[in-house]
Amino acid sequence: MARIIVIDDDHDVRALMVWDLKAAGHEVRSAADGAQGLSLQRAAPAELVVTDIYMPEKEGIETIRELRELYPDLKIIAISGGGSVYRKKSFATHELTIIAEELGVTAVLQKPFASEELLRSVDAALAKH
Hints:
Layout: E1 3-7, H1 11-23, E2 27-31, H2 34-43, E3 48-52, H3 60-70, E4 75-80, H4 84-88, H5 93-102, E5 107-110, H6 115-127
Parallel strand pairs: 1-2, 1-3, 3-4, 4-5
Helix pairs in contact: 2-3
């Protein structure tokens, strides 16, 4: 199966994604923010990164930009539930998913999503050449 990094500041969401992906046979590491996720990718590159867009430290759009610059062929799935930090700045979830898509993410999932939806998106991302 694949090496995957999951980046999400919500411990419970991150733990559930890790559990689902490991149960599907993937090798999974996780990080609570973009800086930790980038460190994991630099230490041992993954084939796929699943990252939240809204995070209080190094947020997802910035993380995706850096990953794309350093690893142009990396598969990336962006996830979003709409963060209060961005709502206060008048950013709509729709606008941020458009930005993420422009950065070349393979898929964008809206929270809450079912485990099956995550696994389908991961399978589809890994199948792309």
